[in-house]
């Protein structure tokens, strides 16, 4: 995955700002090269009582975002979310919802401060290098 420092920082800021709740967003760019050209922060549409351990994006929001991205020549490359006070590795729940071919970035936040950023794919849960260009 290739991500510019600006987009990387947007993910980090979103994760810290939403602590102790999980944040979530969409990665836009080129799905073939896994290059991220933009990050769209989304509201976590889960109810308050589970937002600290789970996230969801309203499907209608996602459809509108996908259409808008296509008009700009971009693809949905993947998604990001945060893990609060837990390692930045996919949970069993994360694994169930991963779509083959897409990237899944997890921002680890500990006590409100950014700790780590890792990227995964459905094919392998070994973390992939997050390249900043």
Secondary-structure map with pairings?
Elements: E1 2-3, H1 5-18, E2 24-30, E3 35-42, H2 59-71, E4 75-84, H3 92-97, E5 103-110, E6 113-121, E7 131-132
Parallel strand pairs: 1-3, 1-7, 4-5
Antiparallel strand pairs: 2-3, 2-4, 5-6
Feature tags:
single chain, seven-stranded mixed sheet, alpha/beta, globular
Short account of what is shown:
The protein has helices at residues 5-18, 59-71, 92-97, and strands at residues 2-3, 24-30, 35-42, 75-84, 103-110, 113-121, 131-132.
Please provide a written account of the structure.
- With about 130 residues, the chain is of the alpha/beta class.
- Helices cover about 25% and strands about 35% of the residues.
- The longest helix has 14 residues, at about 5-20.
- It is globular and about 40 Å long.
- The mean pLDDT is about 90.
Largest sheet: 7 strands, mixed
Q: How would you classify the helix and strand content by structural class?
A: alpha/beta
What topology, given as strand order, has the largest sheet? Answer: 6-5-4-2-3-1-7
Determine Rg (CA atoms, Å).
Answer: 14 Å
Note the total helix count: 3
Tell me the distance between the termini: 10 Å
Averaging pLDDT over every residue, what do you get? Answer: 89
Strand composition percent: 25-35%
Beta strands, count: 7
| Helix-residue proportion | 10-25%
Shape: globular
Tell me the series of helices and strands, N- to C-terminal.
EHEEHEHEEE
Unreliable residue runs: none
């Amino acid at each position: 995955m290739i991500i510019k420092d600006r987009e990387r920082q947007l993910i980090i800021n979103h994760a810290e700002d939403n602590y102790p709740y999980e944040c979530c967003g969409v990665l836009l760019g080129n799905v073939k090269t896994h290059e991220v050209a933009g990050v769209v922060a989304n509201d976590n549409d889960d109810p308050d009582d589970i937002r600290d351990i789970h996230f969801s994006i309203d499907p209608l929001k996602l459809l509108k975002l996908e259409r808008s991205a296509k008009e700009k020549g971009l693809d949905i490359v993947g998604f990001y979310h945060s893990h609060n006070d837990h390692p930045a590795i996919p949970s069993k729940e994360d694994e169930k919802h991963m779509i083959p071919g897409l990237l899944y970035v997890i921002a680890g936040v500990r006590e409100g401060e950014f700790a780590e950023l890792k990227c995964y794919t459905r094919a392998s849960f070994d973390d992939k290098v997050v390249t900043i260009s």
